[in-house]
Hints:
Elements: H1 9-12, H2 41-81, E1 114-115, E2 121-133, H3 141-151, H4 157-166, E3 171-177, H5 179-186, E4 193-202, H6 210-213, E5 215-216, E6 222-224, H7 225-229, H8 231-236, E7 241-242, H9 247-263, E8 268-275, E9 281-287, H10 300-303, H11 319-329, E10 337-339, E11 344-346, E12 349-351, E13 360-362, H12 363-368, H13 372-382, H14 384-393, H15 420-427, H16 436-447, E14 451-452, E15 470-471, H17 475-491, E16 505-514, E17 520-533, E18 540-547, H18 561-564, H19 566-579, H20 589-595, H21 633-643
Parallel strand pairs: 1-7
Antiparallel strand pairs: 1-2, 2-3, 2-4, 5-6, 8-9, 8-18, 10-13, 11-12, 14-15, 16-17, 17-18
Helix pairs in contact: 3-4, 9-19, 11-13, 11-17, 13-15
Amino acid sequence: MSQAPPPDDTATGNAAGSPARRSGAPRRGATPRVETVRLTGADLAQRAGIERMRTRLLLTLAGFAVLFAAVVGKLADATILQPMQPPPAKVVEHPVADPGDQPATGLAAQRAMIVDRNGEILAVSLPMAGLYANPKEMIDTAQAAHQLKLAVPRLDEDRMREKLASAKSFVYLARRLSPEEELAINALGIPGVSFQPAERRRYPQGRVAAQVLGGVDVDEHGVAGVERSFDQRLRENPAPLRLSLDVRVQAVVRDELLKAMTEFQAIGACGIVMDVRTGEVISMVSLPDYDANDFGSTPPEERFNRAVTGMYEPGSTFKLQTAAMALDSGVAQIWNQYDASHDIHIGRFTISDFEGKHRLLYLPEVLAYSSNLGAAHIAMTVGATRQRAWLENMGMMDRIGIELPEAGRPLTPPVSNWGEVAVMTIGFGHGIAVSPLHVVRATATVANGGILLRPTLLAAEPGAPPREGTRVMQAATSDIVRKLMRLVVTDGYGKPADVPGYFVGGKTGTAEKVGAHGGYKKHTNVSAFMSVFPMNAPHYAVYFMLDEPHGNASTGGYSTAGAVSAPGAGKVIARIAPMLGLLPQLANAAQIQQSLYIPLQPGHGPPVAAGRPNQVPAAPAVSVPAAPPSSTPLARDLRHEADGGAADGVSRVAAR
Length: 656
């Protein structure tokens, strides 16, 4: 019997009990086929190049990553961790024949602001643009000028056309363009037209402190006032310059001066407020004034600063100095009497009193009633040598020393002419001429304890040590003079200046003005009131002056200081005292007034040791004999001046 052959796995594709085999797979037990691949040299070179390129890319990527990280780190340090201010740009000077025909290639640092003591902006430089052109780059200069005129109507087309036609290279067409005007011109796309960064000085407060601030020229260089005094500092130091002025007080003083100037038809006015403890000038006003933004077109008479440039005979305000020098030197006491019953005749020149009492006057009465005769007699007890030395110590023989280039020099007689006539007339404020600020500083000195301070327009820095001054008189003398100043307001011609609770003290002063050809101008006065408040603890001095005021019905026709200036000073004090942190002392007013009391007629004091003020035996009434007609050269000068003055001479002009 035959057997069937075993199944052929090639036919069935599967052996019994064996898994199915994939198609194309080698048979079990078969040797796999080996496929040989041949690589040429070109292939190997290509592969090596790809590897090198990959390595270089990785290195480049790493380098950029390091640089990027460094830049990010530097930016973070410069802007976040340690921000730095950009250094000021420097001006590059170019030696050209005409600087106006070629633009500068550098820009100076912005001029610093000027602020008041409270940080209010008084002066600031705003960004502007200068317009210049190169005619060689223009297609049609006449057409360019016409287009510029259309863009900025205020430009002069004919002038620009002329400049462009005659210029060889660069030429300025306009110095101060606003940002809007710059955009309008830039939009024209005129070839050859370019801009230069510039500044324009602006004064946001307008007329406030115009003469003090001064002004700058077209190149932003200071030419007057504070702008000139601190020109280098304002150009090099970007920090604001802080002045001692207070714009609030400045506005009040100007307002009251303007009202009085209008009411009494004066040709000018001046007001000063100064801290008697530091010498800081809180306010300085001179009228007429001007808008500081129009400095370049302002006439000289409006730029004139009466406070430091004007030299005036101080009149009876100087009697405070006469009394102080006599008391301090020990030659006078408050109980001394002086002959005010007889006029003093020097040739045709006569010294007399305005509304005189025609009797012997005690020293307090001399001040309260502003007696020229009494002041002349007191001055004679002092003598020429001590009087001149006193003026020198008080700084009334030289410039005031404040930070204003316009400050003038006082006018005083030479030593050779400083005879008895000069002594007497200077004793009641004639024969010398000083600025109002001289009067303020001297009065502050006799009120603050006898310390002479240099006036300043710079505010003291917070925490700075007290300013040092020079002692020029005894503190005891200052105490007496303060009481005498208070007496002038309570019982004398200064009553209109009193303000309840502020214990104002002061002195009136009316002086006739000297004419252009010598001699005093009749009924032409400078009327001033010099005050300090509060007298129990002096803080501020207030000076209020009208130049050539005219009396009206409210003053009975008088234009004296007590009638026209004292009321204005009182109004200023009432308004500015709260601003300066001083409130009226009403609760203990009686006690304070008692501490300031000094009688008009003290009587004779006890005969105690001489040499100390107010503590020497009483002296008899002083009588000054009339000088011969030609006793001194100054006497001849005074007689010449009297020829064109009032009939009763010098005395009447300053007795109020």
